[in-house]
Amino acid sequence: MAKVVIIGAGMMGSALAFPARENGNEVALVGTPLDREIIETSRKTGRHPKFEKDFPAGVTYYQIEEVDRALVGADLIIGGVSSFGVEWFGDVVLPILPENVPVLTVTKGLMDTPDGKLLTYPALWQAKLDKLGKKVPLTAVGGPCTSYELVAHDQTHVTFCGNDMEILRTLRGIMATDYYHISLSTDVVGVESAVALKNGYALGIALTIGINQKDFGLDSPLHFNSQAGVFGQGMKEMYRLLQFQEALTLDTLGVGIGDLYVTVYGGRTRLVGILLGRGLNIDEAKAELNGVTLESLVVAERVTRAVKKSAERGVLDLKDFPLLCHIDEIISEKKPVNMPWEAFTYEQF
Amino acid sequence: MAKVVIIGAGMMGSALAFPARENGNEVALVGTPLDREIIETSRKTGRHPKFEKDFPAGVTYYQIEEVDRALVGADLIIGGVSSFGVEWFGDVVLPILPENVPVLTVTKGLMDTPDGKLLTYPALWQAKLDKLGKKVPLTAVGGPCTSYELVAHDQTHVTFCGNDMEILRTLRGIMATDYYHISLSTDVVGVESAVALKNGYALGIALTIGINQKDFGLDSPLHFNSQAGVFGQGMKEMYRLLQFQEALTLDTLGVGIGDLYVTVYGGRTRLVGILLGRGLNIDEAKAELNGVTLESLVVAERVTRAVKKSAERGVLDLKDFPLLCHIDEIISEKKPVNMPWEAFTYEQF
Question: What is the mean pLDDT of residues A70-99?
């Protein structure tokens, strides 16, 4: 039995309490400053306000002020913040963590640099740790896993990545259950890039659903030819971006494609894509979503910025990324949706 | 304007009458001996009995006895038979076709040989043509396209493949519309293998839907973690099989993955997968489908046979194909569904 401390009580962090606890570990769930009500509610009711099922018995709950107490004796710390909590996690959490206790982060995303590179969050955090002169093994989880389906015990296959295979094996031992299956990879850049990239492309696929609703009526049946056409194109562009990241392997592509598939059906990314496809501009779509900032939009903008920089330098060709470029002009330039179907076609000799 | 003759009035052959005719061509639809009622009904009502929309005005209909008359002046012949009509098409149709008029076939499938090779239908037909000493340029269409969505004018991206790029460009000119987008490829083995292989894997993904219905109730919501996990695994196995076919390119993989995506949502393959996942054995599932023989089952069996032969020879490793092997044992050995999740996991250094 190990002690697992989850910092960040959003849906994904909280969902990992299920396999962690059901596998027999001690589990402490610590809220960020934004999670105050979630922790309060979970303490009172034993249930996360967004889940349809109680936490397993025995999970304990902590407000952020109590984090030091929660961390005592930790064997594994799960970083459960969204990509908008990346800086907070680096600036506030990393400094207070015990040394040599592995961190497993669920945060998916990439950060672009002025010279057109795409950095993973573990790389950003590692730089902070190096400055602090602190040793904390950073690992991350990628692959197709929506929180509510993990809670429902749907069979799930994810990949843990990190530099040290021995540590990864230990983490798998702590977290694996008969419904939570874990692959291991030392290719952190590959796994993290794959699962970040899929965000923008899932939005692209969802656009076609909205386009059809505009063309054929809100109640028209779902059409899959157009979804599949964009899915295939998205896969090709992800493949090229993984090459660009020097991180293309069949395993990482598999992680990314599985994650793309699940994200097409997942929550807000799908919703904003449908709204845009129906003809709303990006401001109107965001307003419908009550101004929630979406990770998929941020990733698409960052990746496009990096791709354009690299295209200027002749490293990439924008013609290879017509879908990404269209998604970006919808988001950044508020252009109307007009899927560039002919740009997806090719002649192969 | 060209004259397009479609031989085979099943759903896919008939659906191609829409872009062909709407693009301004003369279109003749010829039924096989099994399509007698379809042709009769279409003549009377102007509508295919399985479509929700009339054929475009001007399409003409022929019974198989009238095929010679239909063929007069043909510029393009579309072969619209299912994979169960492959022999009939080779033995009966090819001999009566005019020379030098291209054939575009919609039939998706592969045939395995005793020494573990997988042949495309164009290769089989080419052998027949060579025996006849006849010159008929054979081309094929692959990629994500369900017939009823093509009829509905959902945006669709397919790939025409054949040996001669000039002929392919001519065919694109005849068939392309503002909703039917056409890529071209001289990689016939790649495109045809990709779109055949996806059949078995789509069945694998559908299994998870049935498994969840068994575990959580028939009315339980769809879960996508498990679908996505199997989708990612299916992509990896398809990638390896395209390598085995010496036909792996990013374009062919894109065709196959798009086609896999659309097939998960399409008709009988999905249905039989769900029935098997719920716990029916293969005989019971077939009985539910009124004994209809499914292309996906046939392809999965043939591909597994070829993979096993090649594994015996040391060319392939069965460990790389746990999903295919499980699908095959469900179909061939009537084993119960028990998705080998742990066999999908890996350690990547």
Answer: 96
Q: Which tokens belong to B61?
A: 């209909």
The b-or-e profile of A188-217 (16+ CB within 10 A means b, else e) is bbbbbbbbbbbbbbbbbbbbbbbbbbebee
Q: Provide, as residue numbers in chain A, all residues whose Cβ is less than 8 Å from the Cβ of B240.
A: 250
Q: Which of A330, A329, A324 is nearest to A285 (CA)?
A: A330
Q: Is there a contact between B156 and A226 if contact means CB atoms under 8 Å apart?
A: yes
Q: Among B255, B326, B348, B349, which would you mutate to test the A interface (most chain A Cβ atoms within 10 Å of its Cβ)?
A: B348
DSSP, collapsed to helix, strand or coil, labels residue B182 as strand
Query: What percent of chain A clears pLDDT 90, i.e. is strictly above it?
Result: 94
DSSP-assigned letters across all residues of B87-104? HHIIIIIGGGSPTT--EE
Binary contact (B251, A145; C-beta < 8 A): no
The radius of gyration computed from the CA coordinates of chain A, to the nearest angstrom, equals 20
For residue A293, is pLDDT > 80? no
Q: Which pLDDT band holds residue B295 (cuts at 50, 70, 90)? A: confident
Q: Which two tokens stand for residue A32?
A: 């960020």
Contact A233 B249 (CB under 8 A): no
Backbone angles phi, psi at A44, to 5 degrees: -70, -45
Query: Which residues, in sequence order, are bridge partners of residue B105?
Result: B79, B140
Range B228-253 average pLDDT: 97
What amino acid occupies position A256? G
Residue A123 banded pLDDT, cuts 50, 70, 90 = very high
pLDDT for the residue B84:
87
Mutate to test the interface with B, among A216, A240, A261, A326 (most CBs of B within 10 A): A261
Amino acid making up residue B5: V
B222 touches chain A (CB under 8 A): yes
Task: Classify residue B320 by its DSSP letter.
Answer: G
pLDDT of residue B147: 95
Q: Count how many residues are written for chain B.
A: 349
The answer to whether the CB of A161 falls within 8 A of the CB of A140 is yes
| A304 closest CA partner among A272, A328, A332 | A328
Q: Cβ B144–A229 below 8 Å, yes or no?
A: yes
